[in-house]
Amino acid sequence: MYRYDEFDHAVVRERVEEFADQVARRASGALTEDEFKPLRLMNGVYLQLHAYMLRVAIPYGTFNSRQMRRLAHIARTYDKGYGHFTTRTNIQYNWPALTDLPAILSDLAEVEMHAIQTSGNCIRNVTTDVFAGAAEDEIEDPRPWCEIIRQWSTIHPEFSFLPRKFKIAVIGAEKDRAAIRTHDVGLQIVKGDDGGTAFRVFVGGGQGRLPHIGQEIASAVPAADLLAYLTAILRAWNLLGRRDNIHKARIKILVASLGIDAFREEVDRHYATLRREDLRIPEDEAERIKAYFAPPPFEDLPKVSAPFDRALLADPDFARFARNNVRRHRQAGYASVVVSLKPVGGVPGDITADQMEAVADLAERYSFDELRAAYEQNLVLPHVRLDDVPAVWRALRQAGLATANADLATDVIACPGLDYCSLANARSIPVAQALSKRLADLDYQEKLGPVRINMSGCINACGHHHVGHIGVLGVDRKGEEYYQITVGGSPDEQAALGDIVGKSLPSEEVAPAIQRTLDRYLQIRAEGERFIDTVRRVGPEPFRDAIYETLDAANA
Amino acid sequence: MLQTLEGIQNGLRLSVTTPLEEVEAAAAAEDVLVLEFDAFRDGRGFSLAAVLRERGYRGQLIAAGKVLPDQARHLRRSGFDAVELAPGADRAAWARMDQAFSAAYQPAVDPDPSIWRRRRAAANDRDLDALADRLNRETAGKGAAEIVKAALDPALGLKVGAISSFGAESAVLLDVVAREKADVPVVFLETGQHFLQTLSYRTQLTRALGLTDVRLVTPDAEEKATLDARDDLWKTDADACCDLRKVRPLARATAGFDALITGRKRYQASTRADLRPFEVLDGVLRINPLAEWTGDDVEAWLDARDLPRHPLVEQGYRSIGCWPCTRAVDDGEDARAGRWSGMDKVECGIHLGKRKAA
Ligand code: HEM
Ligand code: SF4
Ligand code: SF4
């Protein structure tokens, strides 16, 4: 894991002081609220429906037990004893007092954490594959590049007042576990012509009101030129992006309106006159950063583990957990364990301070002190010995964190919605909870296999409903909360936006309609087909019929 | 520091909403360009400034309109020299926010070394010493061209520049460099006190050798206004004058280089008696291809290659710097006797390493 040196420490410390200065000038009236707002947002401070919200970055989702314990401490001391993990590997605190913020930020700085650029019209927390450094199919660990991008984008002089926010995701494998094509820029590590590291670059993805799937702009940018290329992209957009309409300001709109080829020409023009050499990532700096992400000292272990196999036979609950939440690891004798934050009837992504500490203990004891925050609003212990998985499972069960539903129907991604969010049309949490209760039977869920359900409380799409296999969007129908359903979305390397199936439903109808959709899939699926495969084969029609069946019957 | 100004009268004023092409076309003819922000959130001005600077605009760039003190660093680091403030603006806040961070990660248009460079400088000092030793060994007994070629070897990955005074002997070094690589950046310290002959010689020599990247480096306008408004600091404190006009501008101009080629030679001064072709100064590799050359070698080369001569050589000048500090020397005299004549000074400071934080 990356460790701060004196310079990194100075930056976060000075950032806290700068923010304190800004807060003081706001208090004295030297800054108007309009002027202060973007400054506080760039420090992760939102004004929500009922209180301020602080969004803390977990850069590329990698953190350790000391940091997790500090997050627990903050939840307990300054909040109501819990936090909320988001799809962008941030953690949100919903109830901090404005006056506590400097103290919280100082507490974070002590453990090499911050809330810098977790919001605002700037380059946001960079995200990656939750299994980076553990996945079998990876050609290179993307996290050193994420760290380089983090440093480069932090308090960027040219790109801190962009037309709109800018999100970058990086992956190191063919398989996309970080939804890179829904990002403003998605980066995929590939081998360049010279055999060196290069990046395939996608641009113009994004969700929100006008969702777009990112398009390929470059097939192999040499690693040393990555920052120069990103600079050219951001510069083209900063100069040409729309600023007159907030909904048309994202880079996706510029790319769509110019067309990818014209946009590429624009970028190339900037790239040609950039002082590229200055932006070349110094070889030794890249090496210095890479060294922090060297694999932990794995033991030489056999592929199979007797304690693991015994537990499989002895305990069907463990066997289920192992089937659903334990992932293969590139190192023989190790596995990655998904810690689901989606208990039956719970709030997706929420975790209590006690649970945070339990997970921190497990990371320290069993996973080389490493933890990951996942895009799916779950946590991952990336490097656990197979021998230790049963003990980890028992401890998770004790902490109420052993729900064996990773990637299954109740592993719902949901935004905070109207319970917290001032922009919401509708609640998402209670609908997710109702769905989770309705589909709770794990035998049923396992029969269904992997299916992703996403919920957003409004068109801003914080819950990624556009790319859910099944998406649920809260809409406002004459003051009533209604929900629009989509099917066939996908966030991965075959990224696609879902199709809207028909008119929106009242909240109590959502869970039953989704269950009918899933039942229909069970009826029509071909051998070995996952839900998304079936939708791709047959289209949305059969599911539309399933969703509106009872409504039609009632209307008839 | 970003300068703070009031009521700017001169220069062309353009809104940051002006398309880049129009800004560029207009800027070409202007020494002063004022970019007006219509809203502090509208960050186009930062990219406009950065692009103008990177494409070579050297005039004064001033930000105006709706900008916040919290943007002082962003403005400065994107290439603005100054901001126009309304009377009564909170200058203290501007100064505080400008200096809120002791360092920045990313390289930008401003000359301050990025955190990446600073980390590197610390780690590299040791490595560079080893590299200098190795190159001194490998080029022992070889000529100036080989020394330059060794420094430019892409395998070393060094960002190499040259510094030249365009003085009496400068043609030799520049010729050697240009024959290896004509687009090596050549930094010329435009102290503001040069002989006119030096300036015209610079143009002549640049053209004759086909150098494509000669960079003029001037003293910081604000510093000069405070320290030497009447251009006569040399009379009272030549060290301070050289510091203002040479040492600090050079530090800014060369912050991006790993290695600098100079034309210094052992015979020139007592301080240069043990000069080696490769040495390390303040975390930068100094390359002195002519270290072992004598005055006669220089003469022979100038003749053999038929290079243009500095116009003042005919008048008896043999080492040429700024006019106040250079005089002609008699035939028997040491060439550098004509520099800071009558003062206890033999070097201007740019070759001596850091005396204070520049
Ligand atoms: C509770 C306060 C929140 C507010 C006020 C908020 C606001 C917004 C807004 C306005 C957008 C649309 C941006 C655009 O289309 O340009 C957006 C998008 C998004 N937000 Fe949030 N959000 C909140 C919470 C969250 C949470 C909890 C998550 C993660 C679970 C999240 C993740 C995202 C993501 C992934 C997007 C889509 C990005 C894209 O368009 O590509 N946000 N948010
Ligand atoms: S999708 Fe809408 S309701 Fe949900 S968090 Fe985002 S802005 Fe709020
Ligand atoms: S040489 Fe003389 S005039 Fe030139 S900078 Fe030094 S002191 Fe000033």
From TrEMBL, chain B:
Record localization: Cytoplasm
Span of domain Phosphoadenosine phosphosulphate reductase: 164-328
Catalytic activity line of the entry: [thioredoxin]-disulfide + sulfite + AMP + 2 H(+) = adenosine 5'-phosphosulfate + [thioredoxin]-dithiol
Gene: cysH
Cofactor: binding details: Binds 1 [4Fe-4S] cluster per subunit.
Cofactors: [4Fe-4S] cluster
Source species, domain of life: Bacteria
Family: Belongs to the PAPS reductase family. CysH subfamily.
Top EC category: oxidoreductase
Pathway: Sulfur metabolism; hydrogen sulfide biosynthesis; sulfite from sulfate
Keywords per UniProt: Cytoplasm, Iron, Iron-sulfur, Metal-binding, Oxidoreductase
EC number: 1.8.4.10
Protein name: Adenosine 5'-phosphosulfate reductase
Function: Catalyzes the formation of sulfite from adenosine 5'-phosphosulfate (APS) using thioredoxin as an electron donor.
Residues the record lists as binding [4Fe-4S] cluster: 241-242, 322, 325
Example GO molecular function: phosphoadenylyl-sulfate reductase (thioredoxin) activity
InterPro entries: PAPS/APS_Rdtase, PAPS_reduct_dom, Rossmann-like_a/b/a_fold, UCP030820
Alphabetical list of HAMAP family matching this protein: CysH
Active-site residues annotated for this sequence: 348
